[in-house]
Amino acid sequence: MNMRLKIAMAIIPLGIIIAAVPENTTRPYKLSAVELLEEVKEGIQFMHPDEVADMVVQKDPSLQLIDVRDKDAYDKFHLPGAINIPIADILSVENEDYLNQDVKMNVFYSNGSTTANEAWMITRQLGYHNNYVLQGGLNFWAETIMNPKQPASTSPDDEFAKYDFRKGASAALGGSTLESTTDNAPAAPRPAIKKRPKKKRVAGGC
After folding, report:
1. pLDDT (tens digit, 9 = 90+) per residue, 154-204?
2. What string of DSSP letters covers 25-87?
3. Is 174 contained in some domain?
4. Does residue 20 fall inside a structural domain?
């Protein structure tokens, strides 16, 4: 058989398969590894628990907490208003409208920072801009917000102001420990997210 015909018979089915693959699985990365590394080194993705706690207490409508732990961990405890998108499902098509939109400021969290940071890196490399990470995760949240330590008597005034804020936030969020709020945070319904309009193809052309 002619060699060109053999090559064509191999390439054509491959092209058909690629064309049939959904767009989200073939979408090219928007950031290079070098660009992503620069953002990781700068730590621009992290939000301090103080900042997140203030938004939660104020019921800031722009905030959307996203728990990236598995469903069992989420059901046992999650932050007020958080929705659950496990890291294993972060690339599911059904989650794209929540992760790639301009309506909410998403803040990923897990027990520490590692899993949430992985979720951020995946979505950031896909070109999504509105996703952040709760610095230190639930462990640091418990330490700073739910169980703040009183500053030493010689500490500056801003440390006492920070302590007073954290004590107030802890009281507003249901108590001094994570465990005490376990039964008071029902699963949050997913909010309606306005889908990004699809870009129209330009008519005509060469």
Report:
1. 899 889 999 999 999 999 887 644 543 444 455 555 555 554 444 444 444
2. HHPPPSS-HHHHHHHHHHTTTEE-HHHHHHHHHTT-TTEEEEE-S-HHHHHH---TT-EE--G
3. yes
4. no
